[in-house]
UniProtKB/TrEMBL annotation:
Keyword match Glycoprotein: no
Gene that specifies this protein: tfe
InterPro entries xrefs: TF_E_archaea, TFIIE_asu, TFIIEa/SarR/Rpc3_HTH_dom, WH-like_DNA-bd_sf, WH_DNA-bd_sf
Organism: Candidatus Iainarchaeum sp
Record remark on domains: The winged helix domain is involved in binding to DNA in the preinitiation complex.
Boundaries of every Transcription initiation factor IIE subunit alpha N-terminal domain copy: 25-164
This protein's name: Transcription factor E
Biological role stated in the UniProt entry: Transcription factor that plays a role in the activation of archaeal genes transcribed by RNA polymerase. Facilitates transcription initiation by enhancing TATA-box recognition by TATA-box-binding protein (Tbp), and transcription factor B (Tfb) and RNA polymerase recruitment. Not absolutely required for transcription in vitro, but particularly important in cases where Tbp or Tfb function is not optimal. It dynamically alters the nucleic acid-binding properties of RNA polymerases by stabilizing the initiation complex and destabilizing elongation complexes.
Entry's family note: Belongs to the TFE family.
Length: 180
């Protein structure tokens, strides 16, 4: 049986999306550079591999540091008095943050499914907002945006879509947990 190489943490779509949301478009490349080294990396070394100014690299590193993903060691050059920083990425921290975020999202979606299952909804048609009965009644069963009548909708498809989304998220979480 062939053994497949283990995926690097930055190769997961979930992780890529998370890193971009936390630290911007170059965060993935930065994490890749730091993870590829066996020892901590200076921001100047990172600068040689990214088309960014050192200040932009430091901004990304600080955003990652704020979330506990990047950590640094500070050393002072006794001759110049300048400090230098060496950085490393804590891949397990990325996974932990994503797992926490996903668990919250799954809980929110499960509550939404519960709400959907116990309420009647109304809408003015495709691409219009939908309202629970109580809100629709307050609007006199007329759409507050368009004035069109609000009609009862079947939300079984929406509940089914939400359940699929939860299943997909749980599957990705399982994969991510195995990766760390």
């Amino acid at each position: 049986m062939a053994k497949f190489p283990k995926k690097k943490i930055y190769e997961y779509l979930l992780v890529k999306d998370f890193l971009i949301s936390v630290a911007g478009d170059y965060a993935i490349e930065l994490v890749k550079i730091c993870s590829g080294k066996r020892k901590p990396v200076t921001d100047e070394e990172i600068g040689k591999k990214l088309p960014l100014k050192i200040t932009e690299i430091r901004t990304i590193l600080n955003r990652l540091h704020y979330r506990g993903i990047a950590c640094y060691q500070k050393t002072k050059n006794v001759k110049t008095g300048w400090y230098s920083y060496t950085w490393e990425i804590k891949a397990p921290r990325i996974a932990t943050l994503i797992l926490e975020q996903q668990v919250e999202e799954i809980t929110k979606l499960e509550k939404e499914i519960e709400f959907e299952g116990t309420h009647a909804f109304f809408s003015a048609g495709k691409d219009s907002a939908f309202y629970p009965f109580e809100i629709a009644a307050e609007y006199g069963f007329k759409c507050p945006d368009t004035g069109r009548p609000l009609k009862a909708i079947n939300n079984k498809k929406r509940v089914k879509d939400l359940k699929k989304k939860i299943d997909l998220m749980k599957s990705e979480l399982t994969d991510l947990e195995k990766a760390i």
